[in-house]
Design brief:
The protein has 256 residues and is mostly helical. It has 10 helices and no strands. The protein has one domain.
Length: 256
């Protein structure tokens, strides 16, 4: 089942190599421009400040800092919207041919829906993160208050971190189809989250299998090939994973 989706994705990727690569480079450029605008003032400020500390530098340039934060947020939002556009491209690629203009058109048309749905997901994830790691916050606070840290306390903290992280990853699987629900089935932000949950329940083990396989591939590439492996990870492995997720969605979604 997992291999079937990887094979479909590889075929679609090879058939649409240049449009996909072009779209990913465009995403990097368009999302990177606001980040660059936000960073540029600090280069000049740092060069003209001498040996002033970072804290002092920030406090004395709060206006510039606020501007940079806004630019970073804009860049982040553009990246999220364009990722939704990429999903639409991958949907077309799995059906035949696609073009990079699809990403731009979809990101523009579905911008606020994609942003709204992903913002809801981030909010839900933050709440889950606090709930899962609340015992860790309590333990570390208790340890600081008591002024000591036993070996048993250290092991407990490590277990909470490890098991909590695994739990969050397993829960996040229910949200992997948010963008697919928006750009393929034309759902709104709230309904897309429900649709993602519905489809992921039917294909949970497949998604988990894909996730594990691609994590292993990523680790092998970066370990064996260093910088070149990282490039392959960005421009080959990542789109193949998103293509595979889209393939799973198409197979398991139920049209109204």
């Amino acid at each position: 089942m997992v291999i079937e989706h990887i094979e479909k994705s590889w075929k679609a990727y090879r058939k649409n190599f240049w449009p996909i690569i072009t779209a990913m480079i465009l995403q990097f450029i368009l999302a990177g421009i606001p980040f660059l605008i936000g960073v540029l003032p600090w280069i000049f400020i740092y060069l003209s400040s001498g040996s002033v500390g970072i804290t002092t530098l920030l406090l004395s340039n709060l206006g510039v800092f606020s501007f940079s934060v806004i630019m970073f947020i804009i860049g982040f939002l553009i990246s999220i919207a364009l990722t939704g556009g990429l999903v639409r491209m991958f949907y077309e690629a799995l059906r035949g041919k696609t073009k990079y203009e699809t990403m731009l058109k979809t990101a523009k048309e579905k911008f606020w829906t994609i942003i709204g749905a992903n913002s809801l997901y981030i909010l839900i994830f933050i709440v889950l993160f606090i709930a899962v790691f609340f015992p860790l916050f309590a333990l570390t606070g208790l340890s600081t208050f008591s002024g000591g840290s036993s070996f048993a306390m250290l092991i407990t903290i490590l277990l909470i971190v490890g098991l909590g992280s695994i739990l969050l990853v397993l829960i996040s699987i229910f949200f992997v189809f948010i963008n697919q629900a928006i750009v393929i089935d034309n759902l709104n932000a709230i309904d897309s989250i429900g649709k993602s949950f519905e489809v992921s329940k039917k294909s949970y083990l497949t998604i988990l299998g894909l996730m594990i396989i691609f994590i292993l591939i990523d680790s092998a590439l970066t370990t064996l090939f260093s910088f070149f492996g990282s490039v392959l990870e960005i421009f080959v492995v990542s789109p193949l994973l998103l293509l595979s997720y889209t393939s799973v969605y198409l197979k398991n979604r139920r049209k109204k």
